[in-house]
Design brief:
With about 280 residues, this protein is of the alpha/beta class. About 30% of the residues lie in helices and about 25% in strands. It has nine helices and 17 strands. The chain has an eight-stranded mixed β-sheet. A seven-stranded mixed β-sheet has the order 9-10-11-12-13-14-15. Strands 4-6 form a two-stranded parallel sheet. Helix 4 packs parallel to helix 5.
């Protein structure tokens, strides 16, 4: 009797361990997986849905290995789409390594007066060198990418706003009934323009703009998005004092569940198109 009970306990423990490993390391074969990767003071998110793979930003150059580690964990060989929200090094720094180590079908960014072309910045030149085969596509408001049940709608820019942050690509990802809004580093100036354009920005998950800077995430914009979750990509004890306290309080007061990479590490959101499940590294 005791041996039987012991066997049952061992079997249950094995199943439990297998279940945990499967949840955090298995390649997603169905449904949507979005990983907000902990890249310190930068931005990067990996999206996988029904065999299609997308990368939005690549963090800083020194944390490129964190990005590739996530891609390898999910068995990625090909990225169907890579989006650089804008040209700041904390968003594009790790993309060159990705371009050199994986097949990339399409690379896009926003065309601005601070274009990748002609820049002498080392990080940008490194990326340009890695883009020789793929080339650069430019997106603007109204563009749409469809990957079976996953759609990527470009919300902004619809014009050049005059600086790299405000010219960021704002993208809404939709899968079934669930949606995610990626804000790049845009300020409240662009948020206002998006609201005036009447874009559908309602989303379950808001990737908070500019690492939680005071210049973004206005009350009016937050109300229009109406998110259940708000994700902030930021490093601990950073010199910018981000995220801004008032912005965080605004999110809390609205009732969002706030998730921060400095506190939780890489944040993974999964959905079958109806339900949402959130897990964190820490």
């Amino acid at each position: 009797m005791k041996k039987t009970i012991l066997k049952i306990i061992v079997i249950l423990l094995v199943l439990l361990i297998f279940g945990v490993l499967f949840k955090y390391t298995a390649t997603p074969h169905g449904g949507l997986t979005v990983c907000f990767i902990d890249v310190g003071q930068g931005d990067s998110a990996f999206v996988s849905a029904d065999g299609y793979n997308i990368l939005i930003d690549g963090g800083v150059k020194t944390t490129a290995k964190e990005v590739t580690a996530v891609l390898d964990r999910y068995g990625v060989k090909t990225l169907d789409l890579v989006i650089a929200s804008h040209i700041d090094s904390d968003h594009i720094g790790g993309i060159a390594r990705v371009m050199r180590n994986y097949n990339v079908n399409s690379f896009v960014t926003a065309k601005t007066d601070e274009s990748l072309k002609g820049e002498n910045d080392i990080v940008r030149q490194d990326l340009l060198s890695a883009l020789n085969k793929t080339g650069i596509g430019y997106v603007s408001s109204g563009d749409r990418y469809t990957f079976d049940k996953l759609t990527v709608d470009i919300i902004s820019p619809d014009r050049e706003f005059g600086n790299a942050n405000d010219d960021s690509v704002v993208a809404k990802l939709s899968y079934g009934e669930r949606s995610f809004l990626f804000m790049g580093d845009v300020s409240s100036k662009v948020e206002k323009a998006i609201l005036q354009n009447g874009c559908d920005i309602n989303a379950d998950v808001l990737k908070v703009s500019h690492h939680g800077s005071h210049s973004s995430t206005s009350g009016a914009y937050l109300s229009a998005v109406d998110p259940r979750y708000a994700v902030v990509s930021v490093s601990a004890h950073n010199s910018y004092n981000l995220p801004n306290h008032e912005v965080m309080q605004r999110l809390y007061d609205y009732g969002c569940e706030v998730l921060r990479t400095d506190e939780s590490g890489t944040i993974t959101v999964r959905s079958d198109g109806t339900n949402i499940d959130v897990s964190t590294e820490k």
